[in-house]
Amino acid sequence: MKLINDPEDIDWAYFWAKKLEAKKDRAKDWNKAAPNFGKSAKKDDYHTKLIERIDVSENDTLLDLGCGEGSITIPLAKMAKSVTGVDSAYKMLEILNEKAKKDNIRNITTIEEDLTKITIGNVGKHDIVVASRSLNGVLNITETIANINEIADKYVYITLFGPNNWKLEKEFYQSINKEYFEFPSHRYFFNILVDMGIYPNVENLNIGHEREYSNIEEALESGKWRLDTLNDEEKEQLYEYLEDILEENENGKLSNPNDKADWVLYWWKK
User: Model's pTM, two decimal places?
Assistant: First the structure.
């Protein structure tokens, strides 16, 4: 292995990709997850925290990459001239379009496509590009960022996992002596941007709200745990682990102080 003597020689995009390649469970069936995604998304104030930081006016066009079922798209559409939502899961877009129709929102266009294939050639310029919680698993990160930066006329807003987002998962895997493969740290992302000549503002969204569950079964099915990667014995161990760490709070719900969403916002002005 070649020894790196100078930090300037580090290829951060390479190490980002190597981390992701090792994480075999990075992909998720978002069509299957779509019906319950909105419910789990409302368990904290992530959307409020993000939206209040986006500088958008009624004259702005906005591109929402990885828009999902519209938790960000629809509120932003009420503030912007128009919003184009992109997602690879058709079920997510179906739910988004149903919500928009119900709310009589007519300035949203949806595109079913992998966000890494979105370029200025197929969507044109937009004043603002938002990639909310959608770039963590992207392998060709440099190319994707370059496309995003080219599309945006005014601002780019991107959120990534913070350092404590997977704290309980790592603890559980350690407790059953199973190797846990992490997503690349958002610090890699910062260095990738700097290597590209982009100098972003960085802040933690400070969600601060503990996740709450009515019972252990709800905690298991919350989407936080990749049950498809666990065998029956490991699922039983997870149930016991959750029984041990979750306690009833003042709201009569089960929670844990370390079970919080943790998201870092990167944004820059063009």
Answer: 0.89
